[in-house]
Write the structure tokens for this entry.
Amino acid sequence: MNSCQVEAVVCGAMWEYCYVVSLAGRKDCVVIDPGAQPEKILAAVKGREISAILLTHCHFDHVGAVEALLGARTPLVIHRADAPGLGDPYINASALMAAPRCFPAASRLVDGGEVLSYAGMEFEVLHTPGHTAGSVCYRCGEELFTGDTLLQGTHGRTDLPTGSDAEMYRSLTRLLPLARGLRCHGGH
């Protein structure tokens, strides 16, 4: 498999990272965690078809631009445990910011262990609960998209709805040996 190209787009007031992932020469791409500013994300998409939107978790700062980017046939992927959060402002934490929002329902639910094929690339789904019950990381070749499970020099918070210190510890214990050999792309 060719190595994927990754473009990081910093979006929103929380400076979250959205990633546009593609293969050279293809007219399609995958978007991971479109949190805000869809116009910025679309500029990085550069007119390519969005073959799928992959969500690492359900928090508003990682899903806020989904509706603007979602095409009629574009798969929206999230872990089964976080799917209810898309429609619940308390779980997606938007209510905590005094701006309660609901987001489109996912069209594909994952449990972890799946390998998803989009835009000529394969994304292995790694279930890494802790930040949320349904947090996942996606591995594509030598790239690892960690959402808020693993950040630069730290891990994501566990004090929001469905977060768990114990689960985060277990997830990091499994993830860190793998992450050492990969290029990690965190959520912030």
In short: Residues 59 and 93 are 6 Å apart (CA to CA). The first strand starts at residue 5 and ends at 11. The mean pLDDT is 96.
